[in-house]
Amino acid sequence: MINRWYKQFTQYPPDHPDYWRIRLIEHSLLITTSYFLILTLINLFYFEGYSYALLDATGLIISIGIYSRFRQTGKVNVTAWAVTLMVASLIMLFVISSKGYSHSLFWATLIPPFSFFLIGRTWGTVISGIAFSICAILVYQQTLHSEAVPFSIGSLFNVVEVCIAQVLLFRFYEKTRFSAYKKLALRNLEIQKMAETDKLTGLFNREKLDFALDKLLTTPAANTYIERSTINTEDPTEACPIIYQPEAHASETKLSQALLNKQEMTQFPISVAIIDIDHFKKINDKHGHLIGDKVLCGLADLLKTQMRSDDILARWGGEEFVVVLPNTRLADATEFIDRLRHFIATKNIQAMDLTISLGVAQYQIEDTAHTLLDRADKALYLAKSAGRNCVAIA
Predict the structure, then answer these.
(1) What is the value of pTM for the model shown?
(2) CA 363 to CA 102: how far, in whole Å?
(3) Which of these, 31, 174, 176, 276, has the minimum number of CB atoms within 10 Å of its CB?
(4) pLDDT at 168
(5) Is residue 299 classed exposed, middle or buried when 0-12, 13-18 and 19+ CB atoms within 10 A define those classes?
């Protein structure tokens, strides 16, 4: 039933800056209308305070009038000012007429929430300052004519009514704040996803790849310990059809004996592979870049179907992709990558038979993310030089 009170303005969708301001206007008018109705009845029949009942009835009529006009026009700024001025004026008239007695000053505490939420900090400060200045003057006058004032049932009503109104206002305010933070958090997630995702293929982009690989290489606990006997004991050429395996240069193997011992005892089994579509330029030249983009997307989708749960697949740039294989030795990585090569060769993308060339490298203890990718890139170049549609390792 309460939802009927809130009108949905098509020109103010949920992502509009004034959406929650409109809801607050409607919420405030709902509170003021309900309060003025209840106060009118209480002052009229319980306290027989006809002057106060008239004041509350006036507020009731004004609230209904503002609400009706707002539903017709949807003018946010005008309505916000009307609600603020109405609330502040009627509250201060009540406070002044009661000379600040019977805890009527409590009502002035409702002015800042209304004014700040509806018309902003600057004018909210001005109106609140005026209202509190009047309250201070009333209290000062009470000190000049100090007299014993008994607490009445009216004092109790004033305190209870103001407390309830404060709870309702700040409950609504907290709802808007929570909603705003939730939308902001979702928006930040969207921005983060956009920042780390390749727009064309939906894979991780190069920035995300660099970050993930750096984090992986600098977190030893995330990698599996390998016994010395399992390192370099298998010939990769026997495990799968590797067509090229360059030997390490002497300058690259001149490590200190301590470093060699450390590398033999503990080596992180992380491998990477760089994938390149064979003769992709011919596809673009013959079929156009739009078809080329569809080929890239089709290949990305196929590659994703073959990834394991811990693998990281990213677009490196152009027609090149990178696969990071955590906890995978070079021999296992090469076997996996060659199966991937065979898989792609059996598929048809955009009515074309594609082949890919791949370069594989395993993390060595002196590697950084850059040097690891650089070695895999050099292996890819060797695979392409050897005739394409093959795997080379570094």
Answers:
(1) 0.56
(2) 79
(3) 174
(4) 86
(5) buried
